Each structure stands twice: as structure tokens, then as C-alpha cells.
Amino acid sequence: MIASKTSQLDDSQRIVITGVGLAAPNGDDLGQFRSALLEGKSGVVPYEIRYFGKTIAGVCNYDALRYQKRKELRRGTRAGSIGIYAASEAVKDSGIDLENFDRSTVGVYIGVTEHGNVETESEIFIISGYNYDTSVWSHHHNPRTVANNPAGEIALTLQITGPHYTLGAACAAGNVGLIQAAQMLRLGECDLALAGGVSESIHTFGIFAGFASQGALATHEDPTKASRPFDLKRTGIVVAEGSCIYTVERLADAKARGAKIYGELVGYAINTDATDFVLPNPERQAQCVQKALARAGLNPEDIDIVSTHATGTSNGDSLECEALRNVFRHSDRTHFNNTKSFIGHCMGAAGALELAGNLPSFRDGVVHPSINVDDLDPECDLPNLVLGSPREIGPVRRILNNSFGMLGINSVVIIEDLGQQGH
Amino acid sequence: MAPEEIREVIIEILGDIAPDEDLGSLDDAVAFREQLELDSMDFLDIVMELRKRYRVQIPEDEYVQLASMRSTVSYLTPKMSEVAK
């Protein structure tokens, strides 16, 4: 088995995931989420939103009062709430005693697709009841809509005094949060990172209306069947909320405290199509995957699972498959799956959440499937595409996670199981 | 609106702003901040709610009148005497 390039680095430059906290439409922690993915349980339900009316969405059911008081929930945003929940769960999972940790050395790096639309729409709705009198515009508007809000609310709640900010990276943001954490840890800018992504997008009517106008919003009489990447009858995106935040540390620090290690970030890449506002570019996507492989010093056949980005749009899915076919055409080891088919598109959280759903494969050797494929689109017919039910594939050593977004942003991360070395 | 009705309105507004607090034991003579966890943004919420619900305008230099329940009710009584509940 080929070794990743990072194995030659000093442990102080190797980056590992040591805790996972998440809120998904079909699970409030990694155990529940993984079970739902193996049992074929969807989190997509009927949904209704102001102006747009009846639709479907991936809706989370996490306990928002577990880590916040009612007053704090009222003061903050949904993105802040769902982020605080995931960040607190991640810290708990990591075993780190934050009370006795130097919190000036903790960085918070949170990916977002968008932020501020929810509050702005809501305020405009409220002042419309006052003949658009702006004197009743809320003084909470600015702190709720500043772009760093979700990361800032996490820092405020967990009393973290190191750097905090969001990474605006469309639907590539979840991976980008993780990549930012790795870079900052390597630079010594922080000693512990809380990183990943959040989405409050189901609370803005604009995202539903925008996708509908673009002809890219999924519809189906059965909500659980609406998100159907790779299927010939796919109709578009199911908008979802969610969050996934990791505790990320340098391997040396993780080993020193005897931490549980989920995996090492051995490769990553971010690039740009520079060709269209919304239409993906498979050549650039393939280059992004190859760049991540090259950084890790790996070949396509060294990847056991590719977690695809596919969102269920007609063009997007087939173009991603074209990119993956080009890179992995000679690898009979690599398996492909898709998590959006269960939960819809969790936007800024998607990349981080979809990676998390696959991490337990390092322990059980099972690939969760892509569901809702009744009639596979020949253009999406990748070899070893796992459809319908989970597949046991033996030891899983590496997972490659795709996450792409509008304005042509592509992001890829590769996570490796450290096995006994990580324990 | 009579003083006791104004007090009810303020209690209702405080209930929204500070949902975790027990307002039943509020001492009207003591400053809100000494009994409740309220910050400047919360006081702005009181001002905003009065503006939204009753079109009562409170100039910034008079916010100090909202220190306690007693001072708030006595300050608002002339302003809201013509306002229907």
C-alpha cells in the first residue's frame, strides 16, 4: 500500500480530525446520521415558506436548547444556533476540556454558502406591515447579518478568543472550512480548530424561488424520493439546512493527549472553473481532484470511496461523473456514493456533512449507497457506483470528498485512516 | 391606557425579550438590570416594540426613564394615555 506524502512530515505538520458534531436532517449526531444512511432513511419532508408556499426541504430536528438559552436563540440566527450545536457536540466528542484549554489559541473557521438572506427577508416582511417605515427596522439586523455571524456566535457561546470567521465558498464551503483549519494549524495561527460548515438556507424563500426560476428545484409527490442524483428522472435540488463541525488538531497534539482520531487530512485542493456563473466545468473539477491526489502523493486507485457532490440537477450530475470517469477510469478499487440523496443539499454544510457520513467506513468497511436511483442515467453510470443498499468493500483506507459551488468554485479533500498509528 | 395596563404591556414585552426570566417576582422599584439579564440591545427591543405596537416615540436621551418598571410606567403614562390597549 502506497503511503501518503504527509507520512514524511513531522507530526507537528500533520492534520487530523479528532471530534465530529453535526445536525443533519436525518440525524443529530454521527451515530444517528450513519445509521440513517445505512438504513436508507431520508430527512426530506414537506415544507412551507413565506411567499413561495408549499415545497419540500431537508429539515433538522436537533435540540436547539441543549447549548443555548431561549434568549440567546432569539438574539441570534439559525445559522448561529445550528453551528453552536455542532461545535459544542464536536468539542464534547473530542474529549477536549475547553474550560481548561487556552481559548485564545482556538480558531473557528466556518464555511457558508450565503448568510444574511434569512434576516433581511424577515425584516422586509415586518416593515411591509408598517408601510415600509424603516424606523421599525430591527437594531438586531446588522449583528445578525454580518458575514462572520455564525462563526462569531460559536466563539461567543464557547468563549473562544482566538480568530473566528466564515468562509464564503458557495456549496464548496464545508470542505473549505476544513482546509482553512489545516492551513492555520500548520502556520501555528491556532492550536485547535473548530471547522466545517453550516446552512440555514431553508429559512430564506429566495433560495427556493431562485432555484425554481432556474428550473433546478426538485419536485416529487413523495418528499423522500425528491433528491435523486444520477437518476434519469431527477428534477433538481432539495434545499436543506444542516451543520457539521470538526475539531481539527496537529497530529502531535492529538497523540500527546491520547485523542481518538477519525482520520488525517492527507490531501486537498481548491480551484476555479472561470467559465460560468452556474454551469460546472468537468475539466476543472477533474483538475481539482488530481491536484488533491498529487498533494497527497496518491494515485486514483489509492482512493476507496469518492463521496460525490452531485445535487440532482440534470447537467451537474452528468458533468461531475464525466470528471470522475476521466480521473478514475483505470481504478477498479474506487467506489462512489452520494449523501444528498438522503438529506438534500445542505449548502454550506454539505461538504463537511457528506464527509462525516462516510468516515465510519474506516471502521466498518461499508459504503453507504446513493438512494432513489430507479433508472440510472447512462451518463452517470460510474463503475462501482453504490446504489440502493450499502456495500461491504473490505478495509477502507482513504475517502475523497467532492464539494463544488456556484461561480465555479471546486474543493476536494482526502482523508486517510491512520489505523493503529492514530490510536 | 391606564398605568396598570401599561405595566401589563411591559411585562408582555419583557416576556418576549427575556424568555428565561421569572417576571412574577419583579420588584417595580428596583432597576431592571439589577434583577434581569438585560443589555443595551434588550432595552432597544423595549423601545422598538413600543414604537411598533403603539407608535410611541422615545427619544434617545430619555431611554434612562426605562430603568425600572416604576419609572417606565410613570414615564409612559402621559405618552400612552390616549392609546387603546
Could you characterize what this model shows?
Chain A has 423 residues and is of the alpha/beta class. Chain A has 2 domains: 242 residues, Thiolase/Chalcone synthase (Peroxisomal Thiolase, Chain A, domain 1); 156 residues, Thiolase/Chalcone synthase (Peroxisomal Thiolase, Chain A, domain 1, 3-Layer(aba) Sandwich), CATH 3.40.47. In chain A, 32% of the residues lie in helices and 20% in strands. Chain A has a 10-stranded mixed sheet with strand order 5-4-6-7-1-8-14-13-9-10, with helices on both faces. A two-stranded antiparallel sheet of chain A has the order 2-3. By secondary structure, chain B is mostly helical. Chain B has one domain: Non-ribosomal Peptide Synthetase Peptidyl Carrier Protein, Chain A (Orthogonal Bundle). Helix content of chain B is 54%, strand content 0%. The longest helix of chain B is centred in the first third of the chain and has 15 residues. The termini of chain B are close together. The interface between A and B is small, with 11 and 12 residues.
